[in-house]
Amino acid sequence: MTTALITGINGFTGYYLAQELRTAGYNVVGLSSTEIVQDASSVNYICNVLDREKLVNILTQVKPDVVVHLAALAFVAHEDVDAIYRTNVVGTRNLLEAIIKSKHIPRSVLLASSANIYGNALIEPIDEMVTAAPANDYAVSKLSMEYMAHLWLDRLPITVVRPFNYTGVGQSLNFLIPKIVDHFKRHAHILELGNLDVVRDFSDVRSVVQRYRLLLESETQGEVFNVCSGEGHSLLDVLQIMREVSGHDPEIKVNPAFVRANEVHRLVGSGVKLDAVIGKVPAIPLKNTLQWMFDHTF
Questions:
Q1: Which pLDDT tens digit goes with each residue over 56-76?
Q2: Which of 25, 143, 250, 263 is paired with 176 by a 20 to 30 Å CA distance?
Q3: Max alpha carbon distance in the chain (Å)?
């Protein structure tokens, strides 16, 4: 049985990736900086990626066949900038170093970066050749992580993924789509948002983790891949779908406190390169994802 080590298994993506891999027959081992309460089906370790010695001990013990590194501070507006860089850059370096020191090289190491590294690109759809132009510290930290990972390409079979926006049941209300769905679910009278004209490429988390699994099973290494639907939706689109799903029509107010000065206005990706490697994975329509989120509680 193939053993997969997932860092950040206690997070939103980690939960669904663990399900995806177990369904495909993997033995899943999880790593989290906090007590793992969502899922008792995996062997789990509590370990912060900043604890270099503990990482080495765990990697030496587990000897995973594949590693998926999801552990990160992923909220763009996170206020502790130092923590963003420590976790996203230094934490990733610690993991790669620990793999080497464990003296067991997995067949694949998948690192989760972010499409935020593209910033306000002038090209659409955005493919992997578009020049990075990060517009916030989170995006800079992810691009820095990618550059740092290059130092290990001669020793580890690293693949980098740049997921565009994705969502699903269980995502934190700090994120925009869950916040919107929650307001409609509660039949709130007023919904305060920031920039209404932004356009994003929204995927369903279940499609994202399926693509991650297929990449792990490919022969690819040393490459970077967008993970996206290839279709852009504005917030006005999302609001209209939620009106149809819920039958509710709240008053929408623009709160200046939620408007970001360095907002990325359009972020729509091209998945052509990834499709050529893993095949075309059917996208789940955004309306289906929003209906799923409206109907279910995590």
A1: 999 999 999 999 999 998 766
A2: 143
A3: 58
